[in-house]
Write a sequence for this structure.
């Protein structure tokens, strides 16, 4: 029973430090990984520059003021999209669903912007893809 | 020492020392690596007829939010000066009374036009800040025409004829010795459209406002052009350059730490198709038509976004050979050029690389 004898003699400060650090070294990363995640939000900005934050896990269809009339925004299954709207090029509608932090869809003629809160670099951490802070086009 | 003595007295534990050291390393490294020293915070708004995104590296507190609001405000101030649609803007007033001598236009407008005329001269007219009436003929007044159609050939010929009546370029900016600045246009055929340079100026002003407010690390993007400062907590800002023929693809990657502006011009952002031919918004003042230089994408890096913005248009119109020559002639200007036939070139000091080359490395 050398082990037991050893632990009984583990009374010096250095020994205790080594034990504590070992425990922290094991538990710390585990707790960090399991920490509660903040609710994912979407930011909807209307023509008057009013911003609404809405949780992505709360399904809804909301109507916001746009320059060319009301614009519908649908939030479903942790994703968000602009619904069909009669803007000239339908770029916002054609973008479809978005769900990743920093992703954005907009109807420029209507002056309505919908963006998933966060920054693209958090996609990188989650997916392993190479995200970009900006796209030159 | 007695701790180590303990291990030496208990040989069964001695072999675990390396493991303890590894755990010690991770217990220190993990909190250090994930310390809350800052993160990227982005805010997007509509300005200058496009989406403007301001990303800053910081704590994202209320104070930072107020600073970002001031940056957006500065961009809107420039827009209010340079917009040709806003009936209250100086540019609108100048365009609607071109032959009047406009005394002391706003300083910002003088700066933009001065730089525009300089780049026009350097590019032998490839960049032209006086194409408002031609853009109107093509329907590129507000973004892309709803139903794109070619302008009447007679209208185009009339425009070219009117332009050619003037032996000299018809935008005149004069500075008297006493400091008074006057601006006048020879006619509405030289009406100002500063869309290919004012956005860059607005980005420069936005960045200056950001730095004055104390934020030293940030990225400001306006409709695909951008200005960059500092880093993301010691890591570079990572920029993708869009593939000109596949909207979902990136053809090149730029990683930057420090100050730099990047502007891209291409035939793929604002265009319509007629009989299979792409009619885009980068017009050549010599033909009155969309530029057919062979280039489909031009990215320019420079210190100032205003310079990068205007030069990307100029090089696009000049084409590969003349465009390369212009880039090589100018200090602190780098470029990445792509032709329709797949030929491509980047200047040696251009910060960034083609993605397919990166894969082969």
């Amino acid at each position: 029973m050398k082990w037991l004898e050893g632990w009984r003699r583990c009374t010096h400060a250095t020994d205790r430090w080594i034990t504590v650090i070992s425990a922290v070294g094991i538990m710390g990363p585990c707790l960090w990984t399991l920490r509660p995640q903040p609710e994912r939000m979407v930011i909807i900005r209307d023509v008057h520059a009013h911003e609404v934050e809405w949780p992505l896990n709360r399904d809804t269809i909301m109507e916001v003021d746009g320059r060319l009339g009301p614009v519908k925004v649908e939030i479903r299954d942790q994703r968000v999209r602009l619904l069909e709207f009669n803007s000239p090029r339908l770029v916002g509608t054609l973008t479809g669903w978005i769900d990743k932090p920093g992703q954005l869809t907009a109807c420029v003629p209507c002056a309505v912007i919908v963006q998933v809160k966060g920054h693209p670099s958090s996609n990188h951490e989650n997916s392993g893809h190479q995200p970009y802070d900006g796209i030159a086009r | 020492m007695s701790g180590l003595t303990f291990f030496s007295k208990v040989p069964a534990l001695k072999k675990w020392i390396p493991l303890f050291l590894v755990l010690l390393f991770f217990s220190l490294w993990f909190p250090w690596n994930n310390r809350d020293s800052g993160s990227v915070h982005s805010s997007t708004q509509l300005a200058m007829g496009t989406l403007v995104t301001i990303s800053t590296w910081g704590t994202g507190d209320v104070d930072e939010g107020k600073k970002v609001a001031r940056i957006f405000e500065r961009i809107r101030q420039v827009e209010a000066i340079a917009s040709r649609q806003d009936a209250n803007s100086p540019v609108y007033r100048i365009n609607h009374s071109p032959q009047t001598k406009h005394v002391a236009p706003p300083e910002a407008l003088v700066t933009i036009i001065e730089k525009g005329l300089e780049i026009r001269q350097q590019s032998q007219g490839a960049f032209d800040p006086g194409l408002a009436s031609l853009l109107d003929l093509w329907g590129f007044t507000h973004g892309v025409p709803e139903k794109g159609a070619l302008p009447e050939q007679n209208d185009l010929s009339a425009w070219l004829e009117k332009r050619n009546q003037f032996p000299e370029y018809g935008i005149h900016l004069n500075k008297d010795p006493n400091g008074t600045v006057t601006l006048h246009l020879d006619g509405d055929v030289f009406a100002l459209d500063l869309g290919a340079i004012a956005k860059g100026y607005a980005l420069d002003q936005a960045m200056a406002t950001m730095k004055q407010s104390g934020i030293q690390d940030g990225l400001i993007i306006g409709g695909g052009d951008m200005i960059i400062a500092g880093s993301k907590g010691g890591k570079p800002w990572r920029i993708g350059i869009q593939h000109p023929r596949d909207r979902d693809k990136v053809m090149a990657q730029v990683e930057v730490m420090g100050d730099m502006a990047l502007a891209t011009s291409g035939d793929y952002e604002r265009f319509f198709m007629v009989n299979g031919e792409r009619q885009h918004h980068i017009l050549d003042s010599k033909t009155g038509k969309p530029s057919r230089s062979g280039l489909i994408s031009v990215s320019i890096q420079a210190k100032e976004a205003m310079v990068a913005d205007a030069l990307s248009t100029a090089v696009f119109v000049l084409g590969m050979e003349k465009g390369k020559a212009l880039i090589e002639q100018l200090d602190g200007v780098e470029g990445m050029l792509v032709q329709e036939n797949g030929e491509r070139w980047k200047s040696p000091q251009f910060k960034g690389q083609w993605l397919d080359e990166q894969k082969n490395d």
User: Anything to note?
Assistant: Strands of chain A lie at 41-45, 51-55, 60-64, 71-76, 79-82, 104-107, 112-116, 134-136. Chain A has a mean pLDDT of 77.
